[in-house]
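@here heads up, posting the sequence + SMILES for the flavin mononucleotide run so it's all in one place. Ping me if the SMILES looks off, I pulled it from an old spreadsheet.
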Amino acid sequence: MPTALTELSAHPIVQAPMAGGASCPELAAAVGAAGGLGFLAAGYKTADGMRQEIERLRGMTGRPFGVNLFMPQPALAEDAAVDVYRERLAGEADRYGTTLGDPRGATDDDYEAKLALLRENPVPVVSFTFGSPTAETVDSLTRVGTCTVVTVTTAAEARDAQEAGADAVCVQGTEAGGHQGTHRDDPQRDGNGAGVGLLTLIAEVREAVRLPVIAAGGLMRGAQIAAVLAAGAVAAQLGTAFLACPESGAHPLHKQALTDPLYARTELTRAFSGRPARGLANRFLREHGPYAPAAYPALHHLTSPLRKAAAQAGDPQAMSLWAGQGHRLARQLPAAELVAVLAAELAAARAPSTPVASAPAPSNPAASPPAGTAGPGPFGSAS
Ligand SMILES: Cc1cc2nc3c(=O)[nH]c(=O)nc-3n(C[C@H](O)[C@H](O)[C@H](O)COP(=O)(O)O)c2cc1C
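bot reply: prediction finished. Complex structure tokens:
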């Protein structure tokens, strides 16, 4: 089923927006040039920082791309809960020779200013995380020719996105690396944010709304992309798989940790930001996660200097090592090569007579697409 969205790239492969530096213009440009859809992450940036990244990307490529925005957050936690957590982290600040950040930092992520820039100087796709935009916001972007996507983690959130007039939903399974895009973080209702697995969620969302679905969470191989397309998605959004690419702006220690046997598992945690996010289970996450209150972005601001100091000290044990459940399958391939390998694996998985092969993990720069799978045509025609 071709949609305005799927016509933006040759392959049904979206490089996930990854705030914190990973999805930089270099990565988005390389993915776009290889026939995927690249994304910039505006989260944690100022509106001007976002504008500069868009300009840099436009200087590198004429290919379509997306920009992801964080929805402004209501203050959820009581100050007292944040104070208790701050006291708990005092020893961590001493350990890394830094001070804790001010938890009363901004909660709106410069949202309105970013929207104003995106209306003035439109981009092909804008996606929203941590909530659904208003119908007026969606309409204002539609009028300037932008395709809008809302990240959802439940069928009810998908209904809200449809009501707001979004063009598509990004369905994020619990396997996903980084923050769960849950619209309202409610520990009473969701516990630690433990969500629904991707294949189940795709089916639930497809029965709830008519919108095209982009599937995200744990996807590392072309055969998995074939699986979510068979389940009704029009495209797959991959974060952790692209995190390991040389073009990704992720910290080198973060890239290495993805396939380091020291990190055997991932966990959903509020330890670093106050909102459930999936990361490699390192010391900080294990020691503090169970005590972290639902206080995003207060904890993000509070732990920011700690995480930076740990990175500077070369200690991944107190960095936020966001990763999806498939992290051990990460391949350190240049982004264009990764898109080509994924597309070839996808084509092989969709052709029943062709043996399905995967390029090896974790790092084999010489890995090439399986023989006899030269690459698919435009993905609208393949579905
Ligand atoms: C390091 C990192 C940062 C992320 N930052 C964002 C973000 O800024 N906005 C967003 O919508 N999703 C973000 N995500 C989630 C991705 O959009 C996507 O849902 C997820 O990466 C899919 O799971 P996977 O990592 O297993 O492929 C991030 C994921 C990672 C790994």
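MO: The chain has two domains: 6-73+108-258+329-382, 76-107+264-320.
MO: One more: Residues 76-107+264-320 form one domain.
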